[in-house]
Amino acid sequence: MNKELDRLSRDELLELIEIYAKEWLAVDGLWFQAVEKKRGMDEAMEHDKEMWAQFTVIEANRIKKFLGLPDHPGLEGLEAALKLRLYSNINQQEYIREDNKLVFKTLDCRVQTARSRKGMEWHPCKPVGEIEYSGFARTIDDRISCRCISCYPEITDSSCGCIWEFSLNQL
Question: What is the pTM of this model?
Answer without folding.
Answer: 0.91
